[in-house]
Amino acid sequence: MPGAVRLPQTLYDKVFCDHIVDEKDDGTVLLYIDRHLVHEVTSPQAFEGLRNANRKVRRPDCTLATTDHQNVPTTSRQNFKSIESFVDEADSRTQCMTLEDNVKEFGLTYFGLGDKRQGIVHIIGPEQGFTLPGTTVVCGDSHTSTHGAFGALAFGIGTSEVEHVLATQTIITNRSKNMRVQVDGELAPGVSSKDIILHVIGIIGTAGGTGAVIEFCGSAIRGLSMEARMSICNMSIEAGARAGMIAPDETTIEYLKGRPLAPEVDSAEWKKATAYWLSLRSDEGAKYDIDVFIDSKDIIPTITWGTSPQDVVQITGVVPGPEDFTDEDKKRACVRALEYMGLTAGTPMQDIPVDKVFIGSCTNARIEDLRQAARVVKGKKKAPNVKRAMIVPGSGLVKKQAEAEGLDQIFIDAGFEWREAGCSMCLGMNPDILAPQERCASTSNRNFEGRQGAGGRTHLMSPAMAAAAAIVGKLADVRKVTGPTQIYEKGSPKVSVAPAHQADIESDEDLDKLLDDPENSQGNTVQSGAPSTGGMPKFTQLRGYAAPMDIANVDTDAIIPKQFLKTIKRSGLGSALFHAWRYDPATGDEKPDFVLNKEPYRQAKVLVSTGPNFGCGSSREHAPWALLDFGIWCVIAPSFGDIFFNNTFKNGMLPIVMRDAAALERIAAEARAGREIEVDLPAQVIRDAEGKELAKFDVDGFRKDCLVNGLDDIGLTMKLDSKIASFETRRTRDFPWLDGSGYLKRDRSGPVKVAAVPVPKTNRGQEIGEPLEW
Ligand SMILES: CC(C)[C@H](C(=O)O)[C@@H](O)C(=O)O
Ligand code: SF4
């Protein structure tokens, strides 16, 4: 209604409201997606689902695909002719070629390996101007949060959701909480945006942002370049948040000028777009559910010591010990992390030698990151004990730019390797990996067990700090290495180890055997064969053994390690579930102490985690697929990683949030005693084997309905086609720069422009035909 009084809104509220296609009374929202980024690892099963149901990609003009992940060798591409001849590893090749086939079949824009614009999906989106302020951006990848630096609502999704977006250009979701992290003051020399985000995660923890979208604000954030802002939003997922956002401002607009897929500067579209973008800041008096205030002067160069991104310490500090924590979960986690990391409490961080250095990843492989590292390295040499120091630019264009500036030579002269673009050692899936017990100074975002290679030890830090570590040969304080030099710039810049070195998987054949051999399946069908379009099995009552797990922050890398992500199927992953925890790396034998290797838990149908934040980290839907294939249909935990939580529902599984500690303990006690329990979804009750109630639980109404009735949500959404079409018409009218029409003008490939029909009301309450006011 024109003139209606609106409550003050946050940046998140505004972007969310501008994308609502439909909202149900129970709060379930059908949200329109403006930008969909696709990569080879999480898309094959989604395209397969489309094909099986004879569906098309609804908005090829709003979809951009690239190959970037574990499959892409970062060795020289000078002789690149085709993926077929270039990618040696069979499964990697299949995954890359499957994406190539799919983009052809569905008419999508694609930056392949031969294309200079190829790179990590979260680097190329902003680089091309595909990511724009005020948009909704999704990708089958948890670090989609990166794009929030533009004031976009950007979040990671699982493969089933990728299929949903491809088919309908929408997603089914709920409103998140509003969280504000305000960082004020001038950053001290040597302190970068990576230090800010590590510091923040150290304070709020990896579950601190659960259920929330974090808005980063304050004078320190405003003073950052776009690239530095991206590093912050990138790691909001490590703080457990659904997304991170920063309000667009002049820095944002400056960055977008001249980007190929942004509106043309000074055109009518540009003027309209920039006026809208600048309107996207939180209103005075807007309410936040959680507020965190940080003074920049408390931040000094920060690194991680343990196996969770919250395990941070200042570089001047020492390795902590269990007595430094009051919480029992944290004490336990500390003991485990010290053992895994091969560290002793009390050791000064700067006394710890490193074996490898990795400067790359979607967090820190942009031109500015490379410039910072180059400033530290210039004229110096890598320490002799550092076996490898790798620079992996985030995209072909970043690489080109760096070479034009002579950065490559600075690194090469210092003894670094200058590689091609890709995820590389961030995920350790291609030959860029750590050997067991090797220690790495890394600019990536995850230090989980085995993340960069089985048994590998990762310390997260900024590019300047990683460069300093390479020079010193130990974890080092960059301020000592460079002296008072200014490493960080203000404003935004324009822009092999032994193959398959996994202690547990020796060769491609081993992997194939594990994944393809029906013998290896635990015999429980995932909806695999049954494509998501065909409906799901109904979930009503589930009775069975519950496997107890007393670990906090069980990440999806642990649930299903990276080497199993190369499959293009949903089935057969049961034998790989918790692979590193379940099998001895040397012999391949089962570890007798691991819960799923014991009776009666080999038959477990439920998993009870007493630690919080189960399923945090990566968006890989392979995690629920592996659990299901093992036979686990229900996970009970005090809290969950957001994307994992969604992914389980999409596969007919039930994740139960049990915040009541006493009730959780009652369930865990039954589990430990090896007695069966019953999960009754219609009644929302958990009972013991005798039928006595152990706990009640909450579940979202829409999701319950889908589970109990085995409903396929893509089919349900497609019934709302006229609402989606109406939304698109309004979008074309109010946000014309978002249609691929502009893209086409600039020789973008892919069909576009959805026919406009007159439609009612926007979600901000305006009337038909009335232009939105910013
Ligand atoms: C492969 C992909 C699903 C995964 C993610 O979602 O994060 C990866 O990028 C990672 O960083 O672990
Ligand atoms: S976190 Fe690592 S593996 Fe994941 S998208 Fe970023 S660079 Fe790639």
TrEMBL record:
InterPro entries: 3-IsopropMal_deHydase_lsu, 3-IsopropMal_deHydase_ssu, 3-IsopropMal_deHydtase_ssu/lsu, Acnase/IPM_dHydase_lsu_aba_1/3, Acoase/IPM_deHydtase_lsu_aba, Aconitase/3IPM_dehydase_swvl, Aconitase_4Fe-4S_BS, Aconitase_4Fe-4S_dom. Its EC number is 4.2.1.33. GO terms for molecular function: 3-isopropylmalate dehydratase activity; 4 iron, 4 sulfur cluster binding; metal ion binding. GO terms for cellular component: 3-isopropylmalate dehydratase complex. GO terms for biological process: L-leucine biosynthetic process. Residues 536-659 form the Aconitase A/isopropylmalate dehydratase small subunit swivel domain. Keywords: 4Fe-4S, Amino-acid biosynthesis, Branched-chain amino acid biosynthesis, Iron, Iron-sulfur, Leucine biosynthesis, Lyase, Metal-binding. Its cofactor is [4Fe-4S] cluster. Residues 520-531 have a biased composition (Polar residues). Residues 13-473 form the Aconitase/3-isopropylmalate dehydratase large subunit alpha/beta/alpha domain. The keyword Transport does not apply. Residues 513-535 are annotated as: Disordered. SUPFAM superfamilies: Aconitase iron-sulfur domain, LeuD/IlvD-like. It is an enzyme of class 4 (lyase). Pathway: Amino-acid biosynthesis; L-leucine biosynthesis; L-leucine from 3-methyl-2-oxobutanoate: step 2/4. Belongs to the aconitase/IPM isomerase family. HAMAP family: LeuC_type1, LeuD_type1. PANTHER family: 3-ISOPROPYLMALATE DEHYDRATASE, HOMOACONITASE, MITOCHONDRIAL-RELATED. Catalyzes the isomerization between 2-isopropylmalate and 3-isopropylmalate, via the formation of 2-isopropylmaleate. This is 3-isopropylmalate dehydratase. It comes from Trichodelitschia bisporula.
